[in-house]
């Protein structure tokens, strides 16, 4: 489905007037700045991997998700 086109000024006016803008957005191509994944490699001691796996099993998520959540929480506290 092709989206309608409007100028930036028209878009801003509609936004300021709290109008629904969904018909002007291409949600299939939307991105969030700073969210592009970047692969890193980290070595953990075996005991730590076992503990991460226990937490992951208890939460029903992957080890990678547990690591991301833990690091994210720590970074939010220190920034």
Element layout with pairings:
Elements: H1 8-16, H2 46-59, H3 63-78
Helix pairs in contact: 2-3
Structure overview:
- There is one protein chain.
- It is built from three helices and no strands.
- With 79 residues, it is mainly α.
- α2 crosses α3 (63-78).
- The chain is elongated, with a radius of gyration of 21 Å.
- The model has no long low-confidence stretch (mean pLDDT 90).
How many strands, which pairing sense, and closed or not: the largest β-sheet? none
Helical segment tally?
Answer: 3
Structural class: mainly alpha
Mean pLDDT: 90
Series of H and E elements: HHH
Low-confidence stretches: none
Rg (C-alpha, Å):
21 Å
Strand segment tally: 0
**Spatial gap, N to C terminus:** 42 Å
* Quaternary status: single chain
Shape call: elongated
Q: Kindly state the percentage of residues in helix.
A: 40-55%
Content of β-strand: under 5%
